[in-house]
Amino acid sequence: MSDQLQPTPENQLTLAAHIEALLFVASEATPLSQLAKVLNVSTKAVEKGIETLASSYAERGLRIQRHRGRVRLTTSPEIASIIEDFLGLEATGKLSRPALEALAIVAYQQPVTRPYVDSVRGVNSDSVLKKLLVNGLIQEAGRAEGPGRPILYNTTPEFLSHFGLNSLNEMPPLNLDELLQKNEGEENGVLKD
C-alpha cells in the first residue's frame, strides 16, 4: 500500500476526487479501511484525502460526516429546509422532551441499557427508546454482561445528521454541575442561567 494512487489513464484525478466519488455512490457510511483497499492506498492516505475534502466543503453544500471509523458524504445542515422543499419532504419532525432526554443519555453515555436510561430519567423509557429506534437515531449495539443481558444502545449516523454534527466530538461538553445547579434552581422556583 502506498500514500498515492498509482498513475494510470483512469486515475488522473486526485485521491480526494476518488474518495469523493466513492462516498457519493456509497449507500451508507464507509469504513476507511474499505476505501483504502479499493484505492490501493494506505488508511493514512485516505485520512489525508478526507481532510482535503472536508476543508474544500467549508463554504459549500456538502459535508464529510464521521462516525465510529466510518465516513459518508452528507448535505450541509444549513440548507436542510431548501432540500426538504426541493424534494417535497415534510420538515424534520421534532422530538418530544422525553425523547430528547433519553437521546441525550444515550449520546453522552453510550453504549447504555434501557434500565440505565430508566434510572437516570426516573421513569420507564421503553416507548421512547422504541420511537428513537424507529426514527433511526439510536441502534442496538449488542448486549451487556450481567443479569438478563439487556440490550445496549448507541447513536447512529442519522443522529449526527439530525443534529447537524460531523462527529460525536462536536457535541457540546457535558457539564453535570451546571445542570444540577440549574435543576435545583428550577425546583426552588428560581431560574439560573
What is shown here, in short?
With 193 residues, the chain is α+β, with helices and mostly antiparallel strands. Helix content is 46%, strand content 14%.
Q: What distinguishing features does this structure have?
A:
alpha+beta; three-stranded antiparallel sheet; 6 strands; 14% strand
Structural features, described:
With 193 residues, the protein is of the alpha+beta class. It is 46% helix and 14% strand. The strands form two sheets. The protein has a three-stranded antiparallel β-sheet. Strands 4-6-5 form a three-stranded antiparallel β-sheet. It is globular, with a radius of gyration of 21 Å.
Give the strand tally. 6
Number of helices: 9
Tell me the Rg in angstroms.
Answer: 21 Å
From the spread of the alpha carbons, the general shape counts as globular
Ranges where pLDDT stays below 50 over 5 or more residues in a row are none
Calculate the terminal CA-CA distance, rounded to whole Å.
Answer: 54 Å
Helix and strand run: HEHHEEHHEHHEEHH
